[in-house]
Amino acid sequence: MAHPGPGVAPADAGWPRRLAAAVPVIFPTIGRLGAYSVGWFRDDLVAGLALTAVLVPVGMGYAEAAGLPAIAGLYATVGALVAYFLVGPSRILVFGPDSALLPLVAAAVVPFAGGDPGRAIALAAALAILAGVLCVAAAAARLGFVTDLLSRPIRVGYMNGIALTILVGQLPKLLGFSVEANDVAGGVVDLGRGLVAGSAVPAAIVVGGASLALILGLRRVSRRIPGVLVAVVLAGLAVHLLGLGSEVRVVGEVPRGLPAVGIPQVSWSDLVALFPTALGIALISFADTSVFSHAFAARRGERVDADHELAALGIVNVGAGLVGGFAASGSATRTPVAEAAGARTQVASLTGAAAILLLLVVLPDLLAPVPTAALAAVVIAAILGLFDLEGLRRLWRLRRSELGLALVAFLAVALFGALPGLGVAVGLSLLAFIRRAWRPHDAILGRVAHYKGYHDIGRHPEARLVPGLVLYRWDAPLFFANAEAFRDCVIDLVDHAPPGTRWLAIASEPITDVDTTAAEMLDDLVTALARRGVELHFAELKGHVKDRLVTYGIHARLGPDHFHPTIGSVVKAYLAAHPDVAWRDWEDELAPPPGSPPSTPADGVRWSGAARQPGEPRVDPPAGEP
Q1: Rounded to whole angstroms, how far apart are CA atoms 370 and 60?
Q2: DSSP-derived 3-state class of residue 454
Q3: Which among 118, 226, 382, 412 could disulfide-bond with 424, CB atoms 3.0 to 4.6 Å apart, if both were Cys?
Q4: For 431-444, what is the mean pLDDT?
C-alpha cells in the first residue's frame, strides 16, 4: 500500500475532529450534554412528567379530531418528541400534533380511508413523511424564507378560519354523534340535521360539557393545574363506574406495547393525491413553528437558524410518520407547560416520550374507558386559543385594507375547507405584495428650509423646488407589473410640471431591481422625455441595479454623467449645467430664532396645475418621514 511522503498528512487525518465539530450542529441537544448537570436532570424529569399529563389527552384528542384512532396521536407525539430531541435547535420547544393541522390531515385522510382505521393510519403516516421530506428538501435549498408568503393579516384570518372549522367539527362529538363534513358550512348543516333528528346523546352531552367546563374552570384558577388530565381521568372514571360504555363512544382497546417502526404501505397514487396537502402542512407547520421558536428563543437570549429549524421540523414529521403517527408541529400550548415546569433542555421532552411509552407498555387499559366526548372537550378548549379576535380588532384600528385580506382568508377556509383556504391565503399574500408594488407610494421632492435633504412635497407643502429640475421618488422595484404605471406617472408629472423643466431625476434608493420589461420601458421613456426637452437622470442608484442598467444598455445610452451618487449631487450638477438658474440652498440662509416656524424664501417654485398630484400616495404611504 502506498503511503504519503514525509510531511504529508493522510487525507482523512482530521476526520475525527471534523466529526466532533459537526455533532453540536447536527445534534444540538447531544452537543449540550457535555455541560449537563444533575440539577438540570431533576428539573427536566419533573417537567417531563408534568408535560406527559398534557401530552396524552391532547394527543388522543387531536387524533380523534383528525379522523384517526386515538392511539395515532400518542404515536405521533412520541415520534415527534424523540426526533426533535435528536436534531432540534431549540432548548425547550415541544413538538407534537397541532390543532392548526387537523383539518388538513382530516381532509386528506378521511375521504380515502373508506372507514378503515388501519388505512387511515397508513395514509396519515405517509402524509407526515411526505411533508417532512418537503421540509428537509426546502431546508437543503435554504428556503426558510418561504413562510413570508403568509403575511400577518393572512395568518390571522386563516387561523380564525381553522379554529372555527375545528370547533364546528368537534361540537357533534361533544354531543355524542359525528358528521362527515370537513368545512364550516357543511359541518353546520350536518350539526343541525343531527340535532333535528335527535342524534344527540344525553350522557355524552353531560360528560363532554362537564369536561369542557372543568378544563376552562381550572385554567382560570391556575395554569399549573393539569386541567386537561383531570377532566379526562374523571370522565373515564365516570364512564367506567356508572357503566356508560354502552351509551357513549369510548376510546376502546389500545394496542399494548411499543409502536411498530416502518414505512407505511400506501401506493404511488396515494402519494400523488396526498402531495398538495403535504405541501400545505409543510408551509403552515413551519410558519407556526418559526414564530414559536423565535419567540421562545428571544425570551431566553438565544438565536434560531430558520433553515435549521425547517430541517428539524422535517425530521420530526418523518419520525412521527415512521411510528404510525401523523403530522406534527411546534406547540404553542405544550411548550409553556414545559417552560413553567422548569424544563432546562430537550431531555424534558424525551422524558415525556418515555412516560408515554411506559404507559402503552404497562397500563394501556387505563385509556380504554376514556369517552370521545371528553377528548372533543380537550380539542375545543385548545382551539379556543386559536381564535384571534384581538388581532382582527387591531387590524380594524391600524389598517382596514389588511383587515379585508384577513376576512377573505377567513371566509375561504370557512367556506371551502382548510387546503383551498390555504391556497387562497398564499394567493392573497402574493396579490397584496404585487398590488403595493404595482401602485406604490411616490413623491416629488423639494427642499424644506432648515431640514437636511429633500422631502415629499405632499407632506411639506412649503417645500421649494429647484427651478427646471424635478426630483421624483418611486418606492418600489421596477418590474413587469408596474413598468407602465411608472412610465405614465413620469410622463404625467412632466406634462404638468412648471414651465421650463429641463431635467427629471429619479431618486432611486428605493428601487431594488429593474427587470427586462422595465428596462424596455426606460428605453422608451428616455425617447419620450427627449421629445419634451427633458433629460432623464438617476440618483442614489444601488450598485447591483446600476449593473443591470449597464447590461441592458440604458447606462451607455444616457452616459455616465446622468448617474449621480446622491440627490445633492444631482442638484449641483444641474446648477453647474444651467448657471442661469437662481437657487439658494438652506445652508445659505440665516437660522431662524428658536421656536419660530420654518421660513419660506421667495426663490424656488411651487408645483401647480397637475391633474393628479404625483406625490400623492396611492397605497398607504410609509409614516414617520420628517
Answers
A1: 10
A2: strand
A3: 412
A4: 82
Q: pLDDT digits over 71-97, tens only?
A: 999 999 999 999 999 988 888 788 989
429 C-beta neighbours (distance < 10 Å), count: 20
Q: What angle do CA 229, 232, 235 make, to 5 degrees?
A: 145
- Range from 17-31, 34-48, 145-159 carrying the lowest mean pLDDT: 17-31
3-state secondary structure of 460: coil
Q: What nine digits make up the cell of 342?
A: 422548569
Task: Please identify, among 402, 429, 456, the residue that sits at the C-terminal boundary of a domain.
Answer: 429
User: To 10 degrees, the CA torsion angle through 290, 292, 294, 298?
Assistant: 180
439 DSSP assignment: S
Q: Of 612, 575, 617, 583, nearest to 495 (Cα)?
A: 612
Measured in residues, the chain has a length of 626
Cα dihedral angle (164, 167, 171, 177), rounded to 10 degrees? 100
Instruction: Compute the chain's Rg from CA coordinates.
Output: 32
583: left (phi over 0), alpha (psi -120 to 50) or beta: beta
Count of other CB atoms within 10 angstroms of residue 433: 14
Same domain membership, residue 196 and residue 174: yes
The CATH number of the domain where 528 resides is what? 3.30.750.24
| Tens-place pLDDT, residues 558-598 | 999 999 999 999 999 999 999 988 887 765 544 444 454 44
Does one domain contain both 421 and 448?
no
Q: Which of 250, 239, 243, 247 is nearest to 200 (CA)?
A: 247
Task: Identify any residues that bridge with 474 across adjacent strands, giving them in sequence order.
Answer: 442
Using CA atoms, how far apart are residues 69 and 179, in angstroms rounded to an integer? Answer: 16
620 in a structural domain: no
Tell whether 516 and 496 lie within a shared domain.
Answer: yes
What is the reported pTM? 0.69
Q: Residue 243 domain-assigned?
A: yes
Look at residue 503 and tell me whether its pLDDT is greater than 80: yes
d(CA 50, CA 342): 10
Angle between helix axes 184-196 and 400-416 (nearest 10 degrees) is 50
Q: Which domain holds residue 478?
A: 441-588
Same domain? 507 vs 384:
no
Judgement on whether residues 120 and 214 belong to the same structural domain of the protein:
yes
Total structural domains in the chain?
2
Are residues 272 and 209 part of one domain? yes
Domain end position, chosen among 429, 463, 481: 429
Among residues 466, 484, 467, 486, the alpha carbon closest in space to that of 476 is found at 486
Q: For residue 505, give the H/E element and its range.
A: strand 503-507
SS3 string, 252-286, reads: CCCCCCCCCCCCCCCCHHHHHHHHHHHHHHHHHHH
How far, in Å, CA of 370 to CA of 604, rounded? 82
DSSP element (H, E) containing 538 = strand 535-539
Q: Rounded to a whole number, what is the largest CA-CA distance in the chain?
A: 102
51 within some domain = yes
Question: CA 369 to CA 308: how far, in whole Å?
Answer: 41
Mapped onto helix, strand or coil, the DSSP state of residue 150 is coil
Work out whether strand 535-539 and strand 563-564 pair parallel, antiparallel, or are unpaired: parallel
Residue 58 to residue 379: CA distance in whole angstroms: 7
Cα–Cα dist 209/253, whole Å: 24
| Three cell numbers written together for 282 | 409543510
Give Cβ neighbours of residue 401 (< 8 Å, ≥ 6 apart).
620
403 shares its domain with 446: no
CA 599 to chain centre: 48
**Which single residue is written with the C-alpha cell 482530521?**
14
Residue 6 lies in a domain: no
Task: Mark whether 472 and 358 lie in a shared domain.
Answer: no
